[in-house]
Specification:
Elements (H helix, E strand, L loop, with lengths): L13 H8 L4 E6 L2 E5 L3 E6 L8 E7 L4 H4 L6 H7 L8 H10 L5 E3 L7 E6 L4 E6 L18 E6 L3 H11 L5
Antiparallel strand pairs: 1-2, 2-3, 3-4, 4-8, 5-6, 6-7, 7-8
Length: about 180
C-alpha cells in the first residue's frame, strides 16, 4: 500500500496524473474551485483558490465497489496492463491478510458510516480502506452485488489529524 496509483500521488496535478493514467477519463467539476477526473476505478481530486491559481492535488479514491457491476471493464487500461484482470469482489479479510503478510498493518478507525461500513487506516501510506459490514436499509442497486465483507473504497491521503478527529468524534460508537 504505497499511497500512489501507478506512481501517481494524491498531490500530483491533473497533467501529471493523466501522463500516468492516460487520457481516457471523464472530468467533473462543481465550480471553479474543485475538479475530479474519473478514470473508471480511480478518481483523482483537485482544488484551487481561484481560476487564476493552479490545481493542487487533494486525494484519490479507488471505487472498488464498482467492480461488482462492471468488473475489469471499468478498470483503467494502464492499471489493467500492470495488474491484469480484476475480480468482481475484493474481500477485506483477504486484503488485510495479504497486507499483514507483507508487514503492513491496518488500524481500525471509528467512522460516521458505522455500522454499515468499517474504516481502516494504514499510517505510513496514509491510505484508508472502507469495507461493507452490513446491508444498508432502503438502499437498492439495479446492477451489481455488493457483499458484506467487500472492500467498498480505498482512499489517500488520510492524515493522522483526520484519524485523531474521527477517533475523538466517533470513538464512542459501536462498530
Amino acid at each position: 500500500m504505497s499511497g500512489t496509483v501507478l506512481g501517481a500521488r494524491p498531490t500530483d496535478g491533473p497533467d501529471q496524473v493523466s501522463a500516468i493514467m492516460g487520457s481516457d477519463f471523464v472530468e467533473n467539476s462543481l465550480d471553479d474551485h474543485s475538479m475530479w477526473r474519473d478514470y473508471g476505478l480511480v478518481e483523482f481530486f483537485w482544488a484551487r483558490e481561484s481560476p487564476d491559481h493552479p490545481w493542487e492535488g487533494h486525494h484519490f479514491t479507488l471505487q472498488v465497489h464498482r467492480l461488482s457491476y462492471g468488473g475489469s471493464s471499468l478498470v483503467n487500461k494502464s492499471i489493467r496492463e500492470r495488474y491484469g484482470r480484476f475480480d468482481r469482489h475484493l474481500r477485506f479479510d483477504k486484503l488485510q491478510r495479504l497486507l499483514a503478510n507483507r508487514g503492513i498493518p491496518l488500524e481500525d478507525v471509528p467512522d460516521a458510516n458505522a455500522p454499515a461500513f468499517t474504516l481502516h487506516w494504514q499510517p505510513a501510506s496514509q491510505v484508508s480502506v472502507m469495507a461493507l459490514r452490513e446491508r444498508e436499509w432502503g438502499r437498492s442497486r439495479r446492477r451489481g452485488k455488493d457483499l458484506v465483507g467487500d472492500v467498498h473504497k480505498i482512499s489517500s491521503s488520510v492524515t493522522p489529524e483526520h484519524v485523531a478527529w474521527s477517533r475523538a468524534r466517533y470513538g464512542r460508537q459501536d462498530g
